[in-house]
């Protein structure tokens, strides 16, 4: 029999736990939402685990209105003007502890994981010129070289004919393209994903496997912090590993070390470098800071871009009329496919916008921001200071809102961007802008990503015909922060009159 002292202690502990839950629940009792979400984070964790958080949150908004409680201290809001106010450049909101998971290597911060506003603005000043291409980089040249590799890969391995079937999985190949493109932009070289036509370090597979776990950890920052401490930290990927993040880190650390010691990466290559890395170095980042910021460039830039490309092609294959109209525009405007050219093609731009609206690349990342100490009124309800508002969690719901986009909100219809009048367009742009976030929390790679998307869609639509291998279920993917694509197989044929890459490459 347990002694009465132990029983008293257990009873006191239980009472304390109940009081804590009650106090937390009471604080936000006026925010609508399912009752059980106010008591524990477990219902939210379950929704994350199911891989359908984007849809679940959309349903919650439909049921409870523009502001919904999703945890004891967590809410989401899908009112567009309110989200712009929270994210705005002068907003007093800060990153909430959720961003502990953005500390990618565990032993240091990136511009995305810094909580101290002053420290963050110093780092921002150091990295922004690199992301904006202000230090002599030619992002366009980098994108073109990556597209040339992709076209070469398709031409040499994946063209089907009447007698030969060579299925191409766009899910993985757009992943390879994006890693290599970001490699070009970040450190001036491709990483060989397209050249080897495989995930040679298993990084993409590892990342996809980790995303559901990372998404759940975001709800428990204390647990995320524990994983960065000894002994669990020993299990984290590190430079020198044979596979996964560690192997990829080793590749760019070699480039970083070589640049820092001012040796050219290859004996033949003595030209001055104009890439993000060189810009970061020029603005004063040291080896460790470069390691963290480069990890961010790759993780923030590759899967998001790949997802947008996958979405664009899935949408185009699902809407033959849109594909035909895009083709007509591309064929009728024969040009070099330069940025100056693709940026002025209205239907192409509308199609890229629309694909990102239907499938916003960051599909269900809560990206919590913390309400300032004095509290704030959101969508008509007072929210006390310290509450976490998941600004990212509402993006999918906003992008598919019937109130904003009409009854066909779920349909990929690029025409909506061309038919809208000035007032409607402003409202649509404000909602769509959340796909890349805005203000002080905006995506730093937006212009690069949009240019890459326009150029890739232009080149592939111009050169090839695509057919879904399984028309009933062309692709499969679920949501864990971003969309995690498992499969998207197509049959590719060369369009009549299109040359193979060996003869056409010079014209890219
Ligand atoms: C379609 C492509 C992309 C989408 C939809 C996208 C979306 C986003 C979103 C929603 C955020 C903000 C999160 C927040 O509220 O805190 C973000 C942040 C960020 N993105 Fe992107 N992104 C894309 C491509 C890229 C690329 C290509 C790069 C770089 C090469 C990049 C670099 C970053 C960085 C560094 C941040 C962190 C900004 C900060 O916290 O200050 N992104 N992105």
UniProtKB/TrEMBL annotation:
Superkingdom as given in the UniProt entry: Eukaryota
GO molecular function: heme binding; iron ion binding; monooxygenase activity; oxidoreductase activity, acting on paired donors, with incorporation or reduction of molecular oxygen
Keywords of the record: Heme, Iron, Metal-binding
Keyword Membrane in annotation: no
InterPro entries: Cyt_P450, Cyt_P450_E_grp-I, Cyt_P450_sf, Cytochrome_P450_monoxygenase
Cofactor: heme
Database matches in Pfam families: p450
Residues that, per the record, bind heme: 443
PANTHER family: CYTOCHROME P450, P450, PUTATIVE (EUROFUNG)-RELATED
Protein's UniProt name: Cytochrome P450
Species per Swiss-Prot/TrEMBL record: Lasiosphaeria miniovina
